[in-house]
Request: fold
Amino acid sequence: METPATTTEGKPVGRPDGPDATVKAAPAPRIWAVGGGKGGVGKSVVTSSLAIALCNGGPRCALVDADLGGANLHTLLGVPRPDRTLSDFLTGRVKELSEVLTPTAIPGLSLVSGARAVLEMANPKHAQKQRLLRHLRRLDVAHVFVDLGAGASFNVLDPFVAADERLMVVVPEPTAIENAYHFLKAAFFRSLRDVAQGAHRPVFQEVIEVARRDGLSPREMFELASRRDSEAGRELRQRARAFTPKLIVNQADTGEHRRIGHEMVAAARRHLGASLHFVGALDLDAAVPAAVARQQPVLQLFPGCAFAKSVYETLERMRLGECLGPDRAPPRWCVDPATPPVATHGVAPGEVPLPRLRMRARQRMRAPLPTTDFERPGASLRRCREHLGLTVRDLEERTRIRSRYLEAIEGERYAELPPDPYLESHVRAYAEVLGVVEARQLATRYADAARAARAVAPRPRGLFARLRRDPRIDVLARRAES
Reply:
């Protein structure tokens, strides 16, 4: 029989010191799952941005890229492809999930990358998924953010249902809104697995089977369960009230876009019988694609941009348990019986006509940027900046380029600008932050114009210039030219 290990004082390792002492286990991390149904809505950017924003407050966090078919979190964070990834854990080559944690450039943030995934890992088995969910709770961090893939398969729904915080990301597009409703409905049905094993198991199994066969909505399923058994119907309704995902509208550019969140809350309660908490609308910002192009987190590269500010506001709202607008009843100004809101697209009964995005009579979308003038690129950049309502100081925060250089770029004062290689990168970064499509061509034309202007500039006067032109001092001339 083995003797238990002891400390230098002779006390057993890992045992309480006294008879009444208890061993306190480390608290399990809080799991955040980010889904949405449709691909391309910015789930990875939102997930990484929320994790970075929370890390800046102090607690350690981990990012898990669960999109094994299209993992890209390592690219967004500028992390080289690690040797050990999530596939190594799922296949059993690595025993603990903590062994595949990779540090990032953000203090306190680690990454479990989904890169280098083998083909069969795009659809892991049930046992592999359950093992992953168990090990997520064992990570030595305070928060774990799981970036889910697109669609509503069980590989996506199971982590979403098992999470402590369920976030659903949508963009103001009819296809994304419709897919978000399908995702919400599928996630709710998936969450009923535990209820079907309770005291009212026969009733639940019958109701769920009818709902699957006839395509019933959750509200219709509640009514059917109440007719079969009032207690079973009450339990289902309680489960629905407990299943309250949080909604984030990404790439919001107008008041109409932000209103979509309220409309989705109202339509989900009316047609699905499910609750949604609208917690934030993230601004459409040119800093996001600019940061992605540089393979750096947008909150680290452009901490003062509008997108970063809206991320911090959304995180603080979730921390306080608040939401945007009422969740119990739909606001009167966003529910019109005559014209259903855009959020009902794909959810309302068939007799309801397909809605269109309603806009105020005098409200119009933001006009596009002025046409790029390649003959006067500096003046063209200034017009774009003024059109967006930005100051030079705003551009300095987003590009990290000194304001005196930005003013010299706009004024085309080539003598005050840095050398050609740096000048072209400065102009390109400036144009990309403004959202200029021809940023690369504009930067090239600007650098060519700067070289041409510097070539015909008046020759300097003074002692050094006279010595350089003196043919008898060829050594000094060669040194100056080099």
